[in-house]
Amino acid sequence: MSDYRWDLNKQKNIIRFALVAGILLMLVKFAAYLLTSSNAILTDAMESIVNVVASGFAFYSIHLAARPKDQNHPYGHGKVEFFSVFLEGGLIFIAGVLILGKAVYNLFFPETLGNLLEGIGLIAFTGVVNFVLGTYMVKQSDHLNSLTLHADGKHLQTDAYSTVGLLAGLIIMYYTGWVWIDTVLSLGLGAFILFSGYKLLRKSIGGLMDESDAELVEKVAHILQKNRKDDWIDVHNLRVQRYGHELHIDCHVTLPNYYNLNKVHDEVSAFDRLINNNLHANTELFVHADPCIPTCCHYCRLKDCPIRSEPQRRDVRWDQENISENKKHF
C-alpha cells in the first residue's frame, strides 16, 4: 500500500473512531443533564451534537478529498475540506447562539438543580476523553497534513477546555449552594463556544478564498534558503494554495540567461524535488524560469560566471516576505 493510501485510511479510521466516541459522550452528557437539570451541563451536551454532526461530515469530506483529479476537477477535490471546516464552524457558532439564548432565559426562569456530584463525575469523564482524543487528532493532522483532522481535533480540545471551566463552576456550586453560578457558567461557555465557531469560520473562508498561508510560505522559504543552489539566483512571486492533503506552488526562479533549455529543465526539476522531499506533503509546482539580467549580478552567488558585469556585493536571504513579492530582489 502506498504511503498516500495508508495516510488516507488512517485519517478515515481516526475520524470514524471520533464519530463513535462523540455519540457515546453526547449520550453521557445528556444523561448528566437529566440527572442534574443544570443549564451549564445542557450547554456542554448541546455542543456534543455539533461534535457528532461535524465528525460525520469530516469523514465524508476526507473520502471525497481523496478522489483523484478528473477533467472537471483538475486540482482534485481537496477544497471540500474547507467546506467541512465551514460546516463545523457554522454549527458551533449556531450552538453558541442557542446556548446564550437558553442562559438568558434561565436568568428569568431558573430551574431546580439536583444530583450535582453524579453529574460532575460524568462530565469529568467526557472532558478527559475529549482532551486525549483531540490532542491525538491535532498531532496526527500535522503528520498527515489534514485540515479536517486539525479542525475536528481543535474542536474537541476546545470542548475539553470548556469542560474544565464547567467543572470548576459545578464544584463551587455544589459546596456553596450558589445556584446563580449555573447561569453565569452558561453565559461564559456560550460566549467561548461562539468565538471558537467564529475562528473556524474565518479559517475556512480564508482557505476558500485562497488566502495566503504565511506560516506555510515561511516553511517553503526556509527549505529553499537552507538548500539553495548558486544557479538559483532569485526566487519571487511564490504562492501556495492548499487543496486538502495536496499543495500547489507557483513561483518565478531566475537562472543564468546562457543556460539552454535542457539545463533549465534540470534546474527546475531539482527545485521541484527539493520542495517535495522536504515539505512532507504532495506538492505540485509550476515554476516560471526567468533569465538573469545585469542588475542581478550584485547579489548573484554563481562563481566564474562568464557574463558577470560586477562582483557580488550583497546576499539576499529568502524569507516569507521577499519570495512572495512579484519582482526580482534588486
From TrEMBL:
<feature type="transmembrane region" description="Helical">
    <location>
        <begin position="120"/>
        <end position="138"/>
    </location>
</feature>
<keyword id="KW-0472">Membrane</keyword>
<keyword id="KW-0813">Transport</keyword>
<dbReference type="GO" id="GO:0006882">
    <property type="term" value="P:intracellular zinc ion homeostasis"/>
</dbReference>
<comment type="similarity">
    <text>Belongs to the cation diffusion facilitator (CDF) transporter (TC 2.A.4) family.</text>
</comment>
<protein>
    <submittedName>
        <fullName>Cation diffusion facilitator family transporter</fullName>
    </submittedName>
</protein>
<feature type="transmembrane region" description="Helical">
    <location>
        <begin position="14"/>
        <end position="36"/>
    </location>
</feature>
<dbReference type="InterPro" id="IPR058533">
    <property type="entry name" value="Cation_efflux_TM"/>
</dbReference>
<dbReference type="GO" id="GO:0005886">
    <property type="term" value="C:plasma membrane"/>
</dbReference>
<dbReference type="InterPro" id="IPR050291">
    <property type="entry name" value="CDF_Transporter"/>
</dbReference>
<dbReference type="InterPro" id="IPR027469">
    <property type="entry name" value="Cation_efflux_TMD_sf"/>
</dbReference>
<dbReference type="Pfam" id="PF16916">
    <property type="entry name" value="ZT_dimer"/>
</dbReference>
<dbReference type="Pfam" id="PF01545">
    <property type="entry name" value="Cation_efflux"/>
</dbReference>
<keyword id="KW-1133">Transmembrane helix</keyword>
<dbReference type="InterPro" id="IPR002524">
    <property type="entry name" value="Cation_efflux"/>
</dbReference>
<dbReference type="GO" id="GO:0015093">
    <property type="term" value="F:ferrous iron transmembrane transporter activity"/>
</dbReference>
<feature type="transmembrane region" description="Helical">
    <location>
        <begin position="86"/>
        <end position="108"/>
    </location>
</feature>
<feature type="transmembrane region" description="Helical">
    <location>
        <begin position="48"/>
        <end position="66"/>
    </location>
</feature>
<feature type="transmembrane region" description="Helical">
    <location>
        <begin position="159"/>
        <end position="177"/>
    </location>
</feature>
<keyword id="KW-0812">Transmembrane</keyword>
<feature type="domain" description="Cation efflux protein transmembrane">
    <location>
        <begin position="17"/>
        <end position="209"/>
    </location>
</feature>
<dbReference type="InterPro" id="IPR036837">
    <property type="entry name" value="Cation_efflux_CTD_sf"/>
</dbReference>
<dbReference type="GO" id="GO:0015086">
    <property type="term" value="F:cadmium ion transmembrane transporter activity"/>
</dbReference>
<dbReference type="GO" id="GO:0015341">
    <property type="term" value="F:zinc efflux antiporter activity"/>
</dbReference>
<feature type="domain" description="Cation efflux protein cytoplasmic">
    <location>
        <begin position="214"/>
        <end position="292"/>
    </location>
</feature>
<dbReference type="InterPro" id="IPR027470">
    <property type="entry name" value="Cation_efflux_CTD"/>
</dbReference>
